[in-house]
Design goal:
The complex is a heterodimer of chains A (about 300) and B (about 425). Chain A has 2 domains: about 25-190, Nitrogenase molybdenum iron protein domain (Rossmann fold); about 195-305, Rossmann fold. Chain A is built from 10 helices and 8 strands. Chain A has helices at about 1-25, 35-45, 70-75, 90-100, 145-165, 170-195, 210-215, 235-245, 260-270, 290-305, and strands spanning about 30, 50-55, 80, 110-115, 200-205, 220-225, 250-255, 275. The longest helix of chain A has 26 residues, at about 170-195. The radius of gyration of chain A is 23 Å and the shape is globular. Chain A starts with a helix and ends with a helix. Chain B has about 425 residues and is mostly beta strands. Chain B has a single domain, classed as Beta Barrel (Porin), CATH 2.40.160. Helix content of chain B is about 15%, strand content about 45%. In chain B, a hairpin with a 4-residue loop joins strand 13 (about 335-345) and strand 14 (about 350-360). Chain B is elongated, with a radius of gyration of 41 Å. The chains are: A alpha/beta (about 300), B mainly beta (about 425). Chains A and B meet through helix 3 and helix 4 of A and strand 8 of B.
Chain lengths: ~300, ~425
């Protein structure tokens, strides 16, 4: 009698536990380090995936506080997708450790470093030292700003989600195909809009834009930061003004989290303009998805290029 | 053929000139030479056969007719290299290695706790790496000017069931906030008086043991974590283990909540218990800590504010020295600090701290207080009070220059007015510390 009650209790407990598992497995919990990766994951994951991100689109993704509230998100994650190339090195590792979630530890089944699927620029050759500033020894991490890389990231998500949820593989494949089609069409439009301005020279604040500029044919001549991560100095600012005057450069691209005082003073000195471009989805309210990110930035650039001939 | 005739003639000549020999030996040598000649002939023919095509006249180059032109093939697209330089670019399976230098200097009147005029206060070497799919390890070795100490060295099991996390090794105990922090992440050049007087100062409660923690269920998105730790029971000026059973135990409850995306608070309660180093009995510490942070995300790299406070109550058993009847007593000092730090530029921070702490008279502190010259019962409480103004500049993320004006009135009636300055620098990959 005691044995049978024990077995029954065990069976009920297992049923509850399994019920919990099957309920949890209904949707895949995916946490991304940035809103860009979250936007791409939503494109292919649709309503089969819960997507949350950690860094907001309007904050510098190099400097995010590893708040314990993020641990709660990571604790429940089936998948963690990160940009990689040491973009998150200053804040993500302690969160992963504190999450007590084996799946999302580096090398775990639920850990995805998206850089390995993408074309990476500015991979340093030769010796890398901190005298070069806050360089990324494995290459520039702002690679999502080329739609080709966005497509590759989406494909990687589709493959991984299909692996985790084989029953919905066709769903993810279909959503990826649709995304690919829409992105191809949108990309043609962005390229056509930017075509008249191919070869234009620009200055950028930080090295956030190599992929974007390569895709749309802009030439980055110099940076407001004398070295990556080092704030502008008076001597470098003067040098920059001279370069812009000499080469007739009129446009400075600045991310939303950098101070505008130095770029504005440079622009005034050369009769140019400062363009506050958004490097990430969520940078402003109007940018709620990956398409709107390029719509926003391309429109700003086109308007400014028309003004500063 | 010509070679063969020449060979035979040569043989004949040689044979004519040879002295009389054994016929059989001569015949065998002739046979060997014949074989050798045949082999050479075969080799010659083979070589001729190979060279034959080369001897044929080269075809005259003819311009291809338009019809003969192969259809134009678009050039092969350049292969796109996906992924950055592999991990091998910076390391293979080596741990992340870092070194942090902490140079401190002081000027002014230091009263009874003197900081040297100039000192390479600490050089910390860090080794951090994932061990296997189940654990990671962190080692921090601290070099002073005259010695080496294992500041921390522990293994963290990251894949335990039921949301548990286990740490094993030597580590700083989770008693309050300051005790958990390495020197290089402190917002000041020194540690607060309450830490110096009651919690072991710079060394703090730092011992070999085990730490088990779990995230506890809590409403409204509150992060709630409970930690239980067991240590050997040896921490200078805090606990002393004379025997194996004198272990120390630490309990810590930590709650965190985001008021908004810019503002959050951290509230902690701590308890520590171990054998007193000053008498045959226990030393118990009760702590409460509060941290409030403000950091607007859009301008996070330029502006932030952090307010901190920590309160510690101690119940320490002390032996009162007496030649006739040494007696045991309990001393109950209390101390606290309140501080605020404001970041007003990308590289600039200004802060202030108010300190007040009691301590048993003639009980040791870290750094050392000038020894008592006249014996005072340790149950008599002295009160230290201090205030500091701190200015910090970061030339980059990897170096820091700090100045701290500190005024302290020690319980013995001495007043210190000091300028402490600090240079810190780091190299290598030093992993981020928990929030």
């Amino acid at each position: 009698m005691t044995v049978s009650i024990g077995i029954r209790t065990l069976a009920v407990a297992m049923a509850v536990a399994l019920g919990g598992v099957s309920h949890a497995a209904a949707k895949i919990n995916l946490v991304t380090s940035t809103q860009d990766l979250a936007a791409l994951a939503r494109e292919v994951g649709g309503d089969k995936v819960n997507v949350e991100s950690i860094a907001m689109g309007y904050q510098d993704p190099h400097f995010v506080e590893p708040k314990p509230s993020f641990v709660l998100k990571l604790q429940k994650a089936d998948l963690l997708a990160v940009v990689g190339l040491e973009l998150e090195i200053g804040w993500l590792p302690p969160l992963q450790t504190q999450s007590r979630n084996a799946k999302i530890q580096k090398g775990g089944a639920g850990y995805m470093e998206m850089s390995q699927y993408c074309q990476i620029l500015e991979i340093p050759t030769g010796q890398v030292t901190r005298a070069m500033g806050d360089v990324h020894p494995q290459g520039n991490p702002h690679y999502w700003l080329n739609p080709d890389n966005g497509r590759r990231i989406a494909k990687a998500f589709a493959d991984k989600l299909s692996q985790l949820d084989a029953a919905d593989a066709a769903y993810f494949a279909g959503r990826y195909a649709d995304f690919d089609q829409r992105l191809t069409a949108a990309e043609k439009g962005w390229v056509a809009k930017m075509a008249p301005y191919r070869g234009r020279k620009v200055i950028t604040y930080h090295r956030s834009w190599p992929n974007f500029c390569e895709r749309f044919g802009l030439e980055v001549v110099d940076y407001v930061e004398p070295r990556p991560g080092i704030p502008p100095t008076p001597s470098h600012t003067l040098e920059l003004i001279n370069i812009m005057k000499r080469e007739g450069i009129k446009l400075i691209l600045v991310e939303p989290y950098f101070d505008l005082r130095t770029p504005n003073s440079i622009a005034r000195a050369v009769g140019g303009e400062v363009a506050q471009l958004m490097p990430s989805v969520g940078g402003v309210k109007e940018i709620a998805n990956y398409f709107q990110l390029f719509d926003y930035d391309v429109n700003i650039l086109v308007n400014l290029f028309q003004r500063v001939k | 053929m010509r070679i063969s005739l020449f060979g035979l003639a040569l043989l004949g000549l040689l044979a004519a000139q040879l002295p009389a020999q054994d016929n059989s030996e001569l015949l065998s040598r002739m046979k060997a030479m014949e074989d050798r000649i045949k082999a050479l002939e075969a080799e010659l023919q083979a070589l001729k056969g190979q060279a034959a095509p080369a001897a044929t006249p080269a075809p005259i180059a003819v311009a291809p007719t338009p019809e003969a032109t192969p259809p134009s093939v678009p050039p092969e697209p350049q292969p796109v290299n996906l992924g950055g330089a592999g991990p091998a670019a910076s390391k293979a399976l080596n741990p992340d290695i870092s070194a942090i230098g902490d140079f401190i200097g002081a000027a002014g009147h230091g009263a009874n706790r003197r900081i040297p005029a100039l000192e390479m206060h600490e050089s910390e070497l860090g080794f951090q790496e994932v061990i296997d799919p189940y654990a990671r390890a962190d080692f921090f070795i601290s070099f002073g000017e005259h010695g080496v100490d294992l500041e921390e060295g522990f293994l963290t099991f990251t894949a335990l069931p039921a949301g548990l996390q286990l740490k094993v090794g030597k580590m700083r105990a989770v008693f309050g906030k300051v005790n958990t922090l390495h020197n290089h992440v402190l917002p000041w050049a020194d540690r607060p008086l309450v830490s110096q007087d009651l919690v072991g100062g710079e060394d703090g409660i730092n011992d070999a043991g085990l730490s088990l923690s779990r995230i506890l269920p809590a409403p409204k998105g509150i992060f709630l974590e409970g930690v239980a730790q067991v240590y050997r029971g040896d921490s200078t000026n805090v606990f002393h283990a004379g025997k194996r059973t004198d272990i120390s135990t630490i309990g810590h409850l930590h709650a965190y909540h985001d008021f908004s995306e810019s503002t959050n608070f951290d509230l902690g309660a701590s308890y520590a218990r171990g054998h007193s180093p000053f008498g045959d009995g226990t030393n118990q510490l009760y702590g409460a800590d509060l941290t409030v942070r403000w950091k607007p995300l859009r301008r996070a790299i330029y502006h932030s504010f952090v307010a901190r406070s920590e309160l510690v109550w101690a119940r320490t058993t002390v032996t009162l020295p007496s030649l006739a009847f040494p007696s045991i007593a309990i001393t109950k000092p209390f101390g606290y600090y309140v501080s605020g730090d404001y970041q007003f530029g990308r590289r600039w921070f200004i802060g202030g701290r108010f300190d007040r702490s009691q301590r048993g008279a003639c009980l040791p502190t870290n750094p050392d207080t000038t020894p008592c010259t006249t014996p005072i019962p340790s149950t008599n409480l002295l009160q230290d009070t201090g205030g500091s103004l701190v200015l910090t500049y970061w030339p980059s993320e990897f170096s820091q220059i700090r100045g701290q004006l500190r005024r302290t009135r020690y319980g013995e009636g001495l007043t210190a007015n000091e300028l402490i300055f600090q240079f810190m620098f780091s190299m290598g990959a030093h992993g981020a510390h928990p929030f």
